[in-house]
Amino acid sequence: MRPAGVALFTLTSAVAAAAPSLGVLVAARAFQAVGAAMIVPASFGLLHPSFPKRQHTRCGTRAQD
Fold first, then answer.
1. Which of 28, 47, 56, 63 has the fewest C-beta atoms under 10 angstroms from its C-beta?
2. How many Å apart are CA 50 and CA 60, to the nearest integer?
3. Residues with Cβ < 8 Å from 2, sequence gap 6 or more?
């Protein structure tokens, strides 16, 4: 899911940068949000095991072990 999210975010960033109208810009930004939503949970999943259990709230994860 993470590579697809990165690809979507990157592609829609380029579309937003070259947007010829406000409508295209708004649509691109909406799809950027979808891409970002696909990236963030995967990032937390990668961070979570890197911290000791007592520090899980410090790394922004709240998953239960």
1. 63
2. 12
3. 38, 39, 42, 43
Query: What residue spans of 1-65 are helical by DSSP H?
Result: 2-17, 22-47
Who's near 62: CB < 8 A, 6+ residues apart?
A: 56
Tokens of 45: 């999943």
pLDDT in tens, 48-60: 777 777 776 766 6
Confidence (pTM): 0.68
φ/ψ region of 61 (left if φ > 0, alpha if ψ in -120 to 50, else beta) reads beta
Q: Are 44 and 60 in contact (CB under 8 A)?
A: yes
